[in-house]
TrEMBL record:
Domain BRWD/PHIP N-terminal, first and last residues per copy: 3-86
SUPFAM superfamilies linked: WD40 repeat-like (SSF50978)
Positions annotated as WD repeat: 179-220, 221-252
InterPro entries for this protein: Bromo_WD_repeat, BRWD/PHIP_N, WD40/YVTN_repeat-like_dom_sf, WD40_repeat_dom_sf, WD40_rpt
GO biological process: cytoskeleton organization; regulation of cell shape; regulation of transcription by RNA polymerase II
Source species, domain of life: Eukaryota
UniProt keyword list: WD repeat
Signal sequence residues: none
Protein name (Swiss-Prot/TrEMBL): PH-interacting protein-like
A Pfam family recorded for this sequence: BRWD1_N
GO cellular component terms listed in the entry, alphabetical order: nucleus
């Protein structure tokens, strides 16, 4: 434990030096001066050893002279090399997309264990929600079955009488909320993995996010040049992809609503996403 704490302390002091080196070469000169002055006052920089082995507080200028091989862009180069190295060990959800602020399978701290598929049990759900579990998530019981998915899609076509949903089920249904927000027809609707957000794609080229509790508009995702034909939410509930008749697929982050990628290559309208 002592060796781990000393190792962390050494890395922390070196990180302070690299941050100051990076800021000093950029436009934030005042921030760099303030940081250098404060880390020297609090003796947070790597220590210096004299010829007798005595420790002395390190100064920023001495460290710059001592580590002349460290360029101002050294910290940036380290961050840019971490993403490809991690990609080979634990592949991300969107290959080639590098970000220091990612979540889920885009997180730089992800491990093979954290990205492993987990099957939730009823007892675990009850413990998480104080004995009152919500509607089971998508990973409850077992992963989605493609056979059941295809069968549900066929329900609006030909089907057998024994496969019909009993009419008594519809007696307990009622309208929860009616929302008017799009400028044109809505072509596709989907929920996120928690059931707390609704995504709607419309003929007005917009994807809107609504809260299921009060029906409030949470965000509007823009970028498409034609009507939205289909949408899909990532398995980790961190991204949403929307296909459009403009022959492109756009991906947004569900935490920041920032665009992540634009996928091009189709020669005609996109009709389905999975």
């Amino acid at each position: 434990m002592a060796s781990d704490s000393s190792h962390i302390a050494q890395l922390t002091s070196e990180l302070y030096f690299l941050i100051a080196r990076f800021l000093e070469a950029g436009p934030c000169q005042k921030a760099a001066e303030t940081l250098i002055r404060e880390v020297e006052e609090k003796e947070l920089l790597p220590i210096r050893l004299d010829w007798t082995g005595q420790e002395h507080p390190g100064t920023y200028r001495n460290l710059v002279k001592l580590y002349r091989h460290i360029s101002p862009e050294h910290l940036l180069q380290v961050c840019s090399r971490v993403c490809p190295l991690l990609e080979t060990e634990v592949p991300a959800s969107v290959p080639g997309l590098t970000s220091l602020l990612g979540a889920g399978r885009q997180n730089l701290l992800r491990t093979s264990k954290s990205c492993k598929h987990v099957v939730w049990k009823g007892s675990a759900l009850a413990a998480l929600h104080c004995g009152r579990p919500p509607e089971p998530p998508i990973i409850y019981g077992s992963p989605p079955n493609i056979v059941e998915t295809n069968f549900s899609r066929r329900l609006n076509g030909s089907y057998r009488l024994k496969q019909l949903v009993p009419t008594v089920v519809y007696l307990h249904m009622k309208m929860h909320k009616r929302i008017l927000g799009h400028l044109s027809s809505v072509y596709c609707v989907t929920f996120d993995r928690t059931g707390r957000r609704i995504f709607t794609g419309s003929d007005d080229c917009l994807v809107k996010i609504w809260g299921t509790d009060d029906g409030r508009l949470l965000a509007t995702l823009r970028g498409h040049a034609a009507e939205i034909s289909d949408m899909a939410v990532s398995y980790e509930n961190t991204m949403i992809a929307a296909g459009s008749c403009d022959k492109t697929i756009r991906v947004w982050c569900l935490q920041t609503c920032a665009p992540l990628a634009v996928l091009e290559g189709h020669a005609a309208s996109i009709t389905s996403l999975q």
